[in-house]
Structures are given as C-alpha cells and as structure tokens.
Specification:
It contains eight helices and 13 strands. With 309 residues, the protein is an alpha/beta fold.
C-alpha cells in the first residue's frame, strides 16, 4: 500500500488540539497555546478538553463529534491529541475519514493515540508519534523541537544508542509502523490493524508487568502479525513491574527478563533484528518521528539511525 504524507505546515498555519481519551486541566491548555504559538502556529482548542466524564473528556458522542469537527475543518492543518490514558479506541468505528482523504492532515500523539496511528497506517496515511500538550511542561527541548520539525518537514533522522549488543550494519528499508505495544495488540484482528507489509515495527510501553510483554509478543508472533516485519525498534519501557515484594506481592517470584530481553527473545525466533534505546515513549525526552512513512535504519557501532525517505 502506498503511504500518503500529509502537507507539511508553514508559519501561521492552525493546529487543533483535541481530547480523544482523558481530559486535561486548564493550565495544560495555556502551556500548549504558548508552546505552539511560539513555534509560529495558530491554535484552536476543542471545547471538550476540560470536560469531565469520569476519566474521559466528555461522553463518547461528544469526543467523536469534536474529533470529527477538527478532521473536517479546512483551517486546521494538523491535530495534536491533548493526552493519552484510555478511550481513543472507542472512537474508531465512528470516525468519517472521507473529507480527510481529500485533504489529509497530520495527527500527532503517542500512547493511547496508537489507536489512531494504527488506523491511519491501515488506511495508508503517515502520522507523527510525539509528545502531547499534557506533557509539554515536562518535555525536553529536543522533544518539543522534534515535534515542530516533524510538522514542518525539517526532519533528517532519528538516532539512538543500542543498550545491549550492536546490530549488524546492514541497512534495512521499510515503512515504519507501531506505537504503544499494549494498544497495538488490542487492535489485532480488527480492521484497524495494518498489514505492515515491508514493515519496520516501533514499540514502547509503560506500567506493565514484565511477563505481559512476553505474552503480547508471543501473541504477535503466533498470530502472524510479525511475518512482514524486517526489524523492530524499541523506545522506552518505563515503570515496568514484576511479581516481587517490591511491587506489593507477598513473595518474590521475578519474571527474569527485562521488557527488552523478552522482545529480543521472540524476535530472535523469527530472525528479526532489534534496535533499541530510541528516545520515544513515556519519557520526558519523548522525541517525535514519523509513523506510516518509509525509512532506512542502520546501526554503526552502537548508534542506530532512522532516516526518513
């Protein structure tokens, strides 16, 4: 499937900020406005950002309506999801992308926003994995600047350092897919899960039991979801938990592998190289990069480089 790259933004273009899952505090809106306007953009905020329906920013219908409004708004050239949490997956069956297909725009975010990223990847559209307004106050300058550069199209490469062994220097080329591992797996078997043909898979996660990582990777392997994957790139796996007294269990019965080690084990069964250490995920240094876009990945000594083409 050919990948559609939305138009890059220019100074003065309008960015919409929408909540598809959890609500945000008013100060998040203020910080987002200052951050985006200082980068030369105009900002339009959803009316539902601070609406509280338990954890969610309004009812299901309200969140669908707000997202649809921004997707259909000709003045909005990109959409940044305000924050993650959980709930975006509920909207997928009810979004009309017919106008979007005629005038595609960038959709940005991470974590729970993987639901939207995956849907776009399945449709053949590129998007941006990035920090979100709820995290702007804690984000590093590189995290903020990389988002702005992605939106403007000024993005040469994405680099990391291998935490374990260096990957062979052979260059691998393919379309970059993925996002949050838990959300990615939750879409398996649905129309919103991309085929990942000629694919390189990016994964990150947060607040999971270590054995859950093995379970999810085993599911992906057995389902055939990894059969078209040429390489796996790893971002942050933060706040991982184990069956030990440290995490509130009465006895310690550790899993015995880190999240990265569990992923490497499954990948090795399929002969898939793993490149780790990318600064993306639930980190303050959550640097932005493109999903659903063709790239080249290569490791030189202990440095990994993804170049978008």
């Amino acid at each position: 499937m050919s990948q559609v790259i939305p138009p890059f933004l220019r100074a003065g273009d309008t960015i919409g900020v929408v909540a598809t899952a959890r609500w945000v505090e008013p100060e998040v809106i203020s910080i987002a406005q200052k951050t985006l306007e200082s980068a030369g953009f105009k900002v339009k905020f959803s009316e539902q950002l601070t609406t509280k329906n338990f954890q969610l920013a309004g009812s299901h219908d309200e969140r669908v309506s707000e997202l649809q409004q921004f997707l259909d708004d000709d003045d909005v050239k990109a959409i940044i999801i305000a924050r993650g949490g959980y709930g975006t997956v509920h909207l997928l069956d009810h979004i009309d992308f017919s106008k979007f297909k005629n005038a595609p725009k960038w959709i940005c975010g991470y974590s729970d926003v993987t639901a939207l990223h995956a849907m776009l990847q399945a449709m053949g559209y590129a998007s941006i994995h990035s920090t979100m307004p709820v995290s702007f106050s804690d984000a590093t300058p590189d995290a903020i600047n990389s988002l702005m550069n992605c939106l403007k199209g000024n993005y040469p490469e994405f680099t990391s350092k291998n935490k374990v062994n260096a990957v062979p220097s052979t260059m691998i080329e393919g379309v970059l897919y993925g996002g949050n591992l838990s959300v990615w797996c939750s879409l398996l078997g649905s129309p919103f899960f991309p085929e990942c043909r000629d694919g390189i898979l990016f994964l990150e996660d947060v607040d999971e039991m270590l054995y859950h990582i093995d379970r999810m990777m085993t599911l992906l392997r057995r389902s055939g979801a990894l059969q078209n994957i040429k390489a796996i790139c790893l971002g942050g796996f933060t706040q991982m938990k184990d069956n030990t007294m440290e995490y509130g269990f009465s006895t310690s019965n550790p899993w015995g592998k880190s999240a990265e080690e569990s992923i490497r084990m499954v990948a090795s069964q399929l002969g898939i190289p793993v490149y780790d250490g990318f600064p993306a995920g639930h980190l303050s240094d959550n640097q932005a990069f493109y999903l659903g876009r063709r790239c080249r990945i290569q490791s030189h000594r202990d440095v990994n480089r993804i170049e978008f083409i």
